[in-house]
Fold this protein.
Amino acid sequence: MNDNTGWWARLRRTGIFWPLVALSLVFLFNLIFSPQFFRLEIKDGHLFGSLVDVLNRGSPLMLVAIGMTAVIATAGVDLSVGAVIAISAATVTVLIGSVTGESQTPMWIAILAALGASLLAGAWNGLLVSRARIQPMVATLVLMVAGRGIAQLITNGQIITIYYEPFFFIGGGYLLGLPFPVFIVAGVFAFAWFMTRRTAIGLFIESVGTNASSSFHSGINEKNIKLVIYAFCGLCAGFAGLIISSNLKSADANNAGLQIELDGILAVVIGGTLMSGGRFSLAGSILGALLVQSVSTTIYSLGVPPEVVQVVKAVVVLTVVLLYSDVVKNGLDKLSQRQGVPS
Amino acid sequence: MKRSWSIDRKFWPLLITVSLFVLLYIYGIIQYRGFSSPQVFFNLLVDNAFLMITSIGMTFVILSGGIDLSVGAVIAFTGVLSAWLLNHFGLSPAIVIPLMLLMGVVFGATMGAIIEFFKVQPFIVTLAGMFFARGMSFVISTQAQTISDPFYRTIGLYRIHLWGKSFISANVVIVAIVLIAAIYLAHFTRFGRTVYAIGGNEQSALLMGLPVRRTKILIYTLNGFCSTLAGVVFSIYMLSGHGLYVSGLELDAIASVVIGGTQLTGGVGYVIGTVFGVLIQGLIQTIIMFQGTLSSWWTKIAVGALTLIFIGVQSIIYSSKRKRMASAQRVATATTTAPAAPATAGD
């Protein structure tokens, strides 16, 4: 019994407890109402099924959530990720070109250029936040508005369709039976996890997010930390842009990554990272992104009109945020104390 | 006691906004034929009436240090819902319009109450409100609905002729009423002063005994009302409703408020500035239209750049003000502590 409460308490203390509970609830719902959700098939050596779909379709969101976690941990927010996705998608498609099945520039150059552009866009946000001292919400709002304009300029206002086969692998290819985007997410996640948990950078981020000026006085270069984090968030969005453009085989500057910033923030908040900065959980954010995606997939597979997804998301956000709020937390603590439940 | 004739620094951002508007207008007149027609100006009002109303509501929210991202979605939802009620149930506009405004009040008050009682960031709550309103409008209808109600059509197509050939629409009159009411509310009532106090420093406002909680909920209620009113005005202007309309409008509204000289951290700004913020955005759009070869997405880039410049200007003005205040404070404390020093030395 004692042991039992031990691991239970340990699990509850970790950041990923509540997101896990929420995700299990969604899976439980599926288990009861649409069991085909869990069916996995192997066709042509590739894994198929709703669960794989969630991983595949959710990969841009997971990438955005990784970047967003780092930004929110520094007590900031990045609203421009959707626009950066559009810029990245526009850059890569324009460079590959839409004329024939051939690529106009070598694909790796096109991909590097798209990632470079996204990195630059993120660094621009970082400069505004760290050097010009503009509130993150507003600084990134500017790129959110102007970024789609820039993407339009790159594509010359057209939706560019591409026919270059090898590029489709990024969004639609399979490796070891799993969709390739999953590997991109795994790579970025591993990088982010290593940098934040095996080097001091994670500690610096939490310190900057908790109190930027005291971090500065204790010798942490708070400005450069922020700059790098925003640039990293831009890069994550850039990867997401590659996947989205490869999936759609086109770049639509108006609609690529539309409203993904909201989903990204939602994923991070569900994942247990506080909007006020400080402690963060990358794994929690990934779970959050998976939750958002599985809610959408569940709703689609139930045959409910997809328009309802947004309403459901709204209710989910609100519930989660209220559960995390201090008022409810304190209330729960009081309740458990009164009943003498060891927590 | 000496009164200098120079303009108070607090008016600088407002002054910059107004002069920018005038300069842009003069540029337009010099550059393009037909720009000097008074109708160009009146069209700015006609085409941006709904943005004006919702930006005025947003001004109060931002003045209090908050943010409301749900306005665009609420406007779209109002349009869809009223079109649905009018078309499918044959309800009279005399019922539909008050119903919409009531819905805005309830919606805003709910968000305000959640923000205040659960101490959740306004950003998140209104984001959820945005999802909710957009989603609900698609639940009602995924297609654009035309409003064929005779009352809406009459009002929407009605032209108030001023002089010559120029005219304004009935919506502009609504804007004028909202503007006057908002200026009165912001600068001449206890509510308005409390809004400024909360934006300046919520903790001090609370310690001063101001009704912070009630006022904050009221601010979001007011903004909910303004956004549904803007929604009604918008559906009169468009004579149709669709869930995809005015996506991203919340950003235009925020940009208008910022360009209008209101500080995003709250506490500083004027309602009238917001009007010029909206007018400048409209003017940029008009100039790009007159120019002809530039694509409309330049509007987005220009508005983004302008917002940035204004934030920059504000931070320069206010940081220099803070420095002056800090140095004044140092002088003050130095003079008060100076006489005390010999006394302690005597002990």
User: Anything to note?
Assistant: The mean pLDDT of chain A is 81.
